[in-house]
Amino acid sequence: MSFRKHISSLAPRCFGALAALASLGTALHGCGTAPQLASDVSNIPYPGGDGPQWVYNGPLPALEDAEVIVSLKGHTARVTGFLPASFSGTIPYYAVLDSAGTRRRITVVYPIATGNLSSFNDNGTAVRNAPGTYSAATIYPRKTLNSIAEWGGFPFIVYNTSRAIGFHGPITHDSKEWFLKRGPVSHGCNRMQGEHVVEMAHLLGVDMRGKVYSSGDSRKRTFKTRVLDTSAGFDVFEGKNVDVDYPTSSGATRPSSNVRVFPTWDARELRRSVCRYNASRSLGERHCDSQPANKIDITTGGRAVGVIECPAGYALESVGSQGGRICTDGVNVWGPFTKAMVAKCLSWGGGDAPCNSDRWGRSVALSARGTELCPEGASFDTGTGYCTEGLNAFGPFPASLIAKCEAAGGGETACRSARWNRDFLKNLL
Question: Is the dihedral angle over the CA atoms 208, 210, 214, 218 positive or is it negative?
Answer without folding.
Answer: negative
